[in-house]
């Protein structure tokens, strides 16, 4: 007798889908895990978007990214003209 609390889903995937790397007895469990994970991620992203919208509505924006110094600039010694002229 079939379990009345579970429903069956037929799903077609391309032959190169990662699920085919698992042995036949583990594939359904993996797909269930991936679907559950995707749903949790979707909910979490929706909450993040709501928070970002609330921040933007309150006038708070993301800070501008800091300028990135090149490796050449980082290793280049800096000379303070005021100190140099006192020598």
What's this model, at a glance?
The chain has 87 residues and is mostly helical. The chain has three helices and no strands. The protein has a domain at 13-62.
Topology record:
Layout: H1 27-57, H2 71-75, H3 81-86
Descriptive notes:
- Keywords: Coiled coil.
- Residues 31-58 form a coiled coil.
- The chain has 87 residues and is an all-alpha fold.
- The chain has a domain at 13-62.
- The protein has three helices and no strands.
- The chain has helices at residues 27-57, 71-75, 81-86.
Mean pLDDT: 87
The largest β sheet comes out as: none
Tally the helices: what do you get?
3
Instruction: Spell the H/E element sequence.
Output: HHH
Shape: elongated
Counting copies of identical and different chains, the oligomeric state is: single chain
Q: Radius of gyration in whole Å, from Cα? A: 28 Å
Q: What is the helix content?
A: 40-55%
Amino-to-carboxy terminus distance: 95 Å
Label the structural class.
mainly alpha
SS strand fraction = under 5%
Number of strands: 0
Poorly predicted runs are none
Structural descriptors:
single chain, 87 residues, mainly alpha, 0% strand, elongated, coiled coil
